[in-house]
Design a protein that fits this description.
Helices cover 32% and strands 20% of the residues. It is of the alpha/beta class. The protein has a single domain, classed as Zn peptidases (Aminopeptidase), CATH 3.40.630. It has a six-stranded mixed beta sheet, sandwiched between helices. The protein has a four-stranded mixed beta sheet with strand order 1-4-2-3, with no helix packed on it. Strands 10-11 form a two-stranded parallel sheet. Strand 2 and strand 3 form a beta hairpin. Bound molecules: 1-benzyl-1H-imidazole and zinc ion. 1-benzyl-1H-imidazole (1BN) binds next to loops. 1-benzyl-1H-imidazole binds next to loops.
């Protein structure tokens, strides 16, 4: 067992009135060991510390999943690749989640095109009231409109980083949650139609659908969006809408990144500002942050181009993002 697997989870249930007695419940995998139990603690001081193993994030398997998605082809709504990816994601999630919800919906674009889109939701720990939501988009963009040559602009984006990376991280976290149940409820949302476009009038469609149609009783305390999380040269500065609307979540995530030794890749000082799925959740009152590397390739030159391929991504970046999000989940504060 690695040190990382012994990640400490400390939950302070009530205020400290007396420190004469500490009850530590050490949860080591399936076994619970009661280490200390004094006899003169006041009734009002109740301190419970839980140690929950955080399994290792399997970055090699996450990278395989990234490649599998790109191998389907660009996951553009209406294509065979989109259909195959949906079938594959559902099968992966049915293996591990408590509940899987397939939520199809239609959208007519500003150009009058009808799209059949599908959000996928996987739920873990459905008995918990306290929940968090992790989301990413699973579709890829129909047009490589940031390409420098005209011929490429009308082709679809392979979406290794933009679409497949976040999906790969969440699928691997889903396996982790089935191996070691998190200490709170976790919902995974895979949004469709985030990147349809060409303008923002026809983007963020799945997040918008979810925000409008969700069961409000199941709302999470906060949500974390992953987008473009596999760049070989990673940098995750704080995203400005996230900081303005969910400062405590930013604080928590960037502190965890620093604690895990990833501080140089998660600079607190610099910010980017990106329109993305998180804004749709913020609009309905769910504090949501975006972990996004919006500097993909030299001067962001791989973004929305045919160069968004597995060769320009790295499993090490998937690992750092997977580790950070997993630690946020298992560090039950
Ligand atoms: C992120 C990745 N986005 C699209 N693919 C969101 C975005 C929308 C970024 C408009 C910049 C402009
Ligand atoms: Zn995109």
């Amino acid at each position: 067992m690695t040190m990382k697997m012994k990640t400490e989870m400390i939950k302070i249930v009530d205020s400290f009135v007396s420190l004469k007695k500490l009850i530590f419940v050490i949860l080591m995998g399936p076994s619970i060991a009661l280490l200390g139990c004094g006899d003169d603690v006041s009734e009002s001081s109740r301190v419970t510390a839980t140690r929950v193993e955080r399994p290792d994030f399997d970055a090699a398997r996450a990278f395989e999943d990234l490649v599998t998605q790109v191998d389907f082809g660009s996951r553009v709504p209406g294509t065979e690749a989109h259909r195959l990816q949906l079938e594959w994601m559902e099968a992966q999630l049915r293996e591990v989640a408590d509940t899987v919800i397939i939520d199809p919906f239609d959208w007519v674009t500003s150009e009058g095109e009808s799209l059949n889109l599908t959000n996928v939701i996987a739920r873990f720990g459905t008995n918990f009231d306290r929940r968090i939501l992790l989301l990413t988009h699973w579709d890829s963009r129909p047009t490589a409109d940031q390409s420098s040559d005209e011929a490429s602009k009308s082709m679809s984006v392979p979406g290794a980083n933009d679409g497949a990376s976040g999906t790969a991280v969440l699928l691997e976290l889903a396996r982790m949650f089935s191996e070691q149940a998190p200490p709170l409820g976790v919902d995974l949302l895979f949004t469709d139609g985030e990147d349809y476009g060409p303008t923002t009038d026809d983007m963020f469609l799945g997040a918008s659908h979810y925000a409008k149609n969700r069961a409000k009783a199941d709302d999470p305390s906060f949500a974390i969006l992953l987008d473009m999380v596999a760049d070989m040269d990673p940098s995750f500065p704080v995203e400005a809408y996230s900081l303005e609307n969910a400062p405590q979540v930013v604080q928590r995530v960037w502190t965890v990144a620093s604690d895990l030794g990833y501080g140089r890749y998660f600079p607190m000082s610099s910010t980017s500002r990106v329109l993305d799925d998180h804004l749709k959740l913020i609009e309905v009152g769910i504090p949501t942050i975006d972990i996004i590397d919006f500097d993909y390739g030299p001067s962001n030159s791989f973004w929305h181009t045919l160069r968004d391929i597995p060769e320009n991504t790295s499993s090490r970046t998937l690992l750092m993002v997977g580790d950070v999000v997993a630690e946020v989940v298992y560090r039950n504060r």
